[in-house]
Amino acid sequence: MKADSKIITYILIQSFVIFNLQAQNSIDLSSIQKENSVVASTWHQLRQIDSVMISYKFVECETISYILLKVDNTSGKDVKVTWNYQLINNGTALDINPDDSKVDFNIEAGQSVKGDCDRRHKNALIVLVSESEHLQRLTSINLLNIKVSFIN
Hints:
Number of domains: 1
Largest sheet: 5 strands, antiparallel
Number of helices: 2
Shape: globular
Oligomer: single chain
């Protein structure tokens, strides 16, 4: 009986840890305020892995709503960062081409990379949320399988 209790406790703890890690990788668009000034808006911390910080902000670029992401590498070494996007609309994951959902880039030691409105068509660090105030396309964005590895 004690062995069963330990197994159940272990499973519950593991489930909580997995859920908690997933929640830290999710941007719930209903809980954040869109900011009209891209320059003055605040970056919100999403996840820190070792010396790499992933942040986001919800902005409007020429009447279209986006999530911009920023990745800071505060280490003394270059890093490779990868993840996959999962886009959610009212609890349902949208179908995305696997090549479009994968993000993979390198950041030099002590540097940052970020999405911005000027390069929105060629940047994996910007996600279209809605093209109209009356039609919200996404309700949340998940970053899955986030990996950070040091480059020699």
